[in-house]
C-alpha cells in the first residue's frame, strides 16, 4: 500500500510541468499584472481614506481588513517590472524606472513596510494612530508617481 502511494507520488513529480522562471507569458502580461495590483492597492486604500475622512462610517474591523490586504498587495507590482522585455515600456511606466531600478524597488519596499505599520496601527483600533500611519503610507504614492509614472 505504502509502496503504491510512493510510486504514484513519484509519477506525479515526474509528470509535473517544469517550474517556469516567471509567472508572466511576456512583458505585456506583466504590465496587466502590475496594473491590476495597483488597482487593488487603490481600492483598499480608498476605502480607508473615506472612513478616515468620515465620508463613510468608521469601522475599525473594516480598516483592519483593508490594511491586511494592503500588506499583501503592496508586495505584488514590483516583480512585474523585472520581466525580460518590460524595460521597453508599456502601460504608464516611465523609462527612468529601469535607469534607477534600485531606487524604484526601494520605494516599493518602503510602500510595503508602511503598509505593515498601517496594519499594526489598525490592530490597535486607535483612529488617530491609523490616521497618522495612513498619511505616511499615502505619501509614497505621489512621490513615486511623480518620478516614474506618466
Ligand atoms: C515605487 C513606485 C510606486 C509607488 C510607491 C506607487 N505606485 Fe502606483 N504606479 C507606479 C507605476 C510605475 C505605475 C504605472 C504602471 C504601468 O502602467 O505599467 C503605477 C500605476 C498606478 C495606478 C494605475 C493602474 C492602472 O490600472 O493602469 C494606480 C491606480 C496606482 N498606481 C495607485 C497607487 C497607489 C494608490 C499607491 C500608494 C498607495 C501607489 N500607486 C504607489 C508606481 C508606483
Question: How are the SSEs ordered, and which strands pair?
Answer:
Layout: H1 2-15, H2 27-53, H3 60-73, H4 96-99, H5 101-124, H6 127-148
Helix pairs in contact: 2-3, 2-6, 3-5, 5-6
This protein binds heme C.
Heme C is lined by residues 31, 34-35, 38-39, 41-42, 45, 91-93, 104, 107-108, 111, 140-141, 144-145, 148-149.
Order of helices and strands: HHHHHH
Provide the number of structural domains.
1
State which percent range the strand residues make up: under 5%
Shape assignment: flat
At the fold tier of CATH, the topology name is Four Helix Bundle (Hemerythrin (Met), subunit A)
- Structural class comes to mainly alpha
Heteromolecules bound: heme C
Tell me about the largest β-sheet: none
Number of strands: 0
Amino acid at each position: 500500500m505504502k509502496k503504491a502511494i510512493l510510486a504514484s507520488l513519484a509519477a506525479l513529480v515526474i509528470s509535473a510541468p517544469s517550474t517556469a522562471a516567471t509567472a508572466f507569458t511576456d512583458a505585456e502580461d506583466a504590465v496587466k499584472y502590475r496594473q491590476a495590483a495597483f488597482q487593488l492597492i487603490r481600492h483598499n486604500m480608498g476605502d480607508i481614506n473615506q472612513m478616515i475622512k468620515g465620508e463613510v462610517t468608521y469601522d475599525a474591523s473594516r480598516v483592519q481588513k483593508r490594511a491586511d490586504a494592503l500588506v499583501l498587495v503592496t508586495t505584488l507590482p514590483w516583480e512585474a517590472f523585472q520581466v525580460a522585455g518590460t524595460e521597453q515600456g508599456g502601460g504608464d511606466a516611465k523609462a527612468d524606472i529601469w535607469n534607477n531600478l534600485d531606487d524604484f524597488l526601494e520605494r516599493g519596499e518602503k510602500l510595503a513596510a508602511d503598509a505593515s505599520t498601517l496594519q499594526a496601527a489598525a490592530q490597535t483600533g486607535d483612529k488617530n494612530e491609523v490616521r497618522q500611519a495612513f498619511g505616511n503610507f499615502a505619501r509614497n504614492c505621489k512621490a513615486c508617481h511623480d518620478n516614474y509614472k506618466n
